[in-house]
Design a protein that fits this description.
Number of strands: 4
Strand order of the largest sheet: 2-1-4-3
Order of helices and strands: EEEEHH
Largest sheet: 4 strands, antiparallel
Distance between the termini: 93 Å
CATH topology of one domain: Rubrerythrin, domain 2
CATH architecture of one domain: Single Sheet
Strand content: 15-25%
Length: 121
């Protein structure tokens, strides 16, 4: 039996399912324009929230969503503030004077642990 193989079935080569009676969900094509002027299309579900910026699958550049009139769509998120650094977030929680006190406490702890004394004290 092991020396025989199934013939005529082409297992895995063709699907036995058909598309009869299948209804696809509504779709919407959105056009995005790259900075160099070229465009590409992305298909979304009709009820999806369409992003104003999308990365091109070929070049990796960011494309802007074009409206029905062919002009880039203006979004409220376009005025994104600059990313905050760790230092900015730290200054939101503590004042500079508090940070200096914490620094001195931490340095004193580290010096004591290492057996060093502050020079001039």
């Amino acid at each position: 039996m092991a020396d025989r193989s199934l013939r005529g079935a082409r297992l895995g080569a063709q699907s036995l399912q058909s598309e009869e009676g299948v209804t696809f969900s509504p779709r919407l094509r959105s056009v995005y324009q790259l900075p160099d002027g070229s465009t590409f299309e992305v298909t979304f579900a009709a009820d999806a929230e369409i992003p104003t910026v999308w990365e091109s699958p070929k070049t990796g550049q960011e494309g802007r969503l074009l409206g029905a009139n062919g002009l880039p769509v203006v979004s409220d998120q376009d005025e994104i503030r600059a990313p905050r650094s760790h230092w900015d977030m730290l200054l939101e929680r503590r004042t500079r004077a508090e940070l200096e006190i914490l620094l001195e406490e931490r340095l004193a702890f580290l010096r004591a642990r290492r057996g060093e004394q502050k020079i001039g004290a």
